[in-house]
Automatic annotation (TrEMBL):
One of its GO terms (molecular function) is lead ion binding. This is Transcriptional regulator. PANTHER family: HTH-TYPE TRANSCRIPTIONAL REGULATOR CMTR, TRANSCRIPTIONAL REGULATOR-RELATED. It holds the Pfam family HTH_5. GO terms for biological process: response to cadmium ion; response to lead ion. Residues 1-96 form the HTH arsR-type domain. It comes from Mycolicibacterium flavescens (Mycobacterium flavescens).
Length: 109
């Protein structure tokens, strides 16, 4: 098993948050577990797009799955992620809109 450094973990977390859909998924899951079909409907994306983002978040170690018969439930891999998200959304930042524009070329972490 590969050892992940603190900077590796933060980079993966930052990459996950850099995409609006992945950020929305994480924000939804901070309140509790969810099912892909329901999350896709709430976010307004296709199930395939949501599935791709969930695969990325699983690969980053941020979410885990729990099979339930024919359905799969997703949740944050560690409840401390929810606390970190709460802290981040509580920040008030003076943001320059020209800095760090979102790219259509964003790739999964």
């Amino acid at each position: 098993m590969q050892t992940v450094t603190h900077s590796d973990a933060l980079s993966r977390f930052g990459c996950a948050l850099s995409d609006p859909t992945r950020a929305e998924i994480l924000l939804m899951l901070r309140d509790g577990s969810g099912y892909p079909a329901e999350m896709a409907d709430k976010i307004g994306v296709s199930r395939q797009i949501l599935s791709n983002h969930l695969a990325c978040l699983r690969g980053c170690g941020l979410v885990v799955t729990h099979p339930e018969g024919r359905r799969t439930r997703y949740e944050l891999s560690d409840r401390r992620i929810a606390h970190a998200l709460d802290d981040l959304v509580g920040l008030v930042l003076d943001v320059d809109p020209a800095c760090c524009p979102a790219s259509a070329e964003d790739a999964c972490c």
